[in-house]
Every structure is written in structure tokens, then in C-alpha cells.
Amino acid sequence: MTQPCSLTVIIPTYNRSSYVRECLVALRASGVPDLEIIVSDDGSTDDTREVVAATNPDAKYLWQPNSGTPATARNAAFAVSRGRFVGFLDCDDEWLPDAPARAVRHLDAHPEVDALFAESKMGDPQEGYVSWIESAGQEAFFRLPHVEPEPGFRVLERGPFFRRMAVRNPVFIGATIVRREAFAAIGGFDPQLCGAADWELWLRMAHRFTWAYMAEPLAKYMRHLDNMSSNHDKMIAEFVQSLRNVLTKCPLSSFDRRFIRTQLRAHLFSHAYLAYDRGDIAEARTRFRRSVRAGDIHPVTLALAAFCQLPGALARRVRRLKHTAAPGGRA
After folding, report:
1. Which of 158, 181, 233, 266 is the most exposed place for a label (fewest CB within 10 A)?
2. Residues 218, 131: contact at Cβ < 8 Å?
3. Are 222 and 304 within one domain?
4. Which part of the chain is the Glycosyltransferase 2-like domain (predicted)?
């Protein structure tokens, strides 16, 4: 039988060998003596394999044909991992010195917690770094019901955290460590998703399991132009699918089902409006129909759906009203 270790970190990558090298070097200061490192390569054609072998010969290297999403690479690495706890670190991000070890100690001390996420530093070396949680969590996160068994360690009440997660994701994947049993029980990442695969997984886990927040920064989130989250249209499409998954996969209460459907309608409208705003009326027509079928009968939605059926002068006249029909003005 394979001997377990304290913590596994799974690093998905695709043709980013220079990032992989920096990520592996930073992990030397994790503070976890038996850290298992798995680099899960989604079909790279560069020198990633050689870089891993040269930088950390003890790291496991997995290669698979390109799937187009890190979700499959993460799931494949989990299947061969040994850690009691598992973290997921994109190769262009870094763990901070000794913070992973402190996260493991928190989880060992609090068996009621199934998943832990932490503060992170977001930015880049040129522009500097800001707080992740102040941007992604906002004030609403800090008002969530919780208990604080240790200073800087909050155990969050499940229902309010799930609903806050559905509104805005406060969890950075690179600063998240989960119990092996919880990840296995929830079924891993959805391989049909790419940039929103983590949010969809966190939603399912937040509905079923208990989360905690560690105020000490665990990771650096590097912002650059090729971050997957930079493709706004694709991300909103994945947000829509994620919420549909939650409605299908989670045994929601009637209150939570209504709440998730409300969030779904908001994302469907935003997705439709993006197509409308860039002048792709045919695509907007299809998307607004979906929004209305999902129960969005807001006057702005109905007006834009009607507009997308009409060409010519009338279309140009209605488009002049688009600024009053922006997503932020529907309340």
C-alpha cells in the first residue's frame, strides 16, 4: 500500500516551462517536509518535462494529450496522489514560505473543517501586490457568520457562505487546501469547464462541506494578460453552466434553489448583453431567448429580446438607449 503524506500540491501546466521552474523553486520553502509535488502536463510540446527533472527530481511528472482545460490535468494528478490534504497551484502562481505548513496544522487541529482557503497577494512584481480577499471577498465576506477558534482562523457557517459564493467567489484556487476525502466525495473538477471549473467545484463543496478562512497569505496570484479569467465572454458562459450544474447536482433547499436561479438569470442577461453590446445581434437573440426562458422578465431584458428580432432603422433607434439598459442599471 502506498504510504500517505501530509500534503500534495497539484500543478497543471501547458507549454509554460519557465513558470513551472519558478513555481517549483518557490515550493522549496513550503515548510512541509513530506510535500508531494505533482506536475500534471496537459500536452505540452516545450521542455516542461526536462525543467521538472532538473529543478526537482523528486516531483512527479504526468503527461496527457491536450484536453484544453486544467480540470482534467488536476483530476488525473489527484488519482495518483498520496496526500491527506490536497492543494491546487497553477504554474504561474506561487506558495509563500511556511504558509502551507501552517494551513496543514490548522486542518489537523480542526477536523470539522473540510476545506481551507487563505488570503493571497494579487498582482505582479512590477506593479506590486494587493489583498486578494479585499478585492474578491469584499465587505460582505467579512460579515458572514463564523466562529474564530484561533486568531486569524474563521470557520464559516455553511449556508451563508454557499450563498455568498454564488454571488461572488472569494476563494483563490492557489490558496486552497482540501481534505482528500472531501474532494473524492464531491467528484473532482468538471472536465467540461475551464476557467470556472474551480468556482463550480467550490460551490458544490460549499453546499456540502465546512470551509474555513486563514487570514495569513498562503499564495501569490500573478496577474497577466493570458490569465484564463481575462476572456470575459467565455467566463460568463462558464458561470452559467456552473450554476446549472449546481441546480442539477446539489440537493438544494427551495430557498437555495430560488437563490441560485436568481444568480443564473443575472449571468444569462450579462452573457446576452455582451453579444448585444458588440453588435452580434444574431448571438444576442439566441442568448436573450435563453434568459427569458429562464424566467427573466425584467422590462430591460424583454425590450432587448424584442429588439434583437428587429433590423434596420428601428434597431439603430433602440441601440441609442443601450447605456440606460446596461447590466448595472437593471435593479
Report:
1. 181
2. no
3. no
4. 8-131
pLDDT on residue 307: 87
Quickly list H helices, 115-196: 132-136, 138-142, 158-167, 180-186
Q: How many domains does the chain have?
A: 2
Supply 107's cell numbers: 486542518
What range does the domain containing 212 cover?
A: 5-227
The alpha carbon of residue 83 and the mean position of all alpha carbons in its chain are separated, in whole angstroms, by 21
Is residue 238 one of the residues assigned to a domain? Answer: no
Q: Do 159 and 87 belong together in one domain?
A: yes
Is residue 321 one of the residues assigned to a domain?
A: yes
Q: 88-140, pLDDT tens digit by residue?
A: 999 999 999 999 999 999 999 999 999 999 999 999 988 999 999 998 978 99
Q: Are residues 152 and 197 in the same domain?
A: yes
For the stretch 179-229, pLDDT in tens is 999 999 999 999 999 999 999 999 999 999 999 999 999 999 988 656 555
Give the integer Cα–Cα distance in Å for 212 and 110. 10
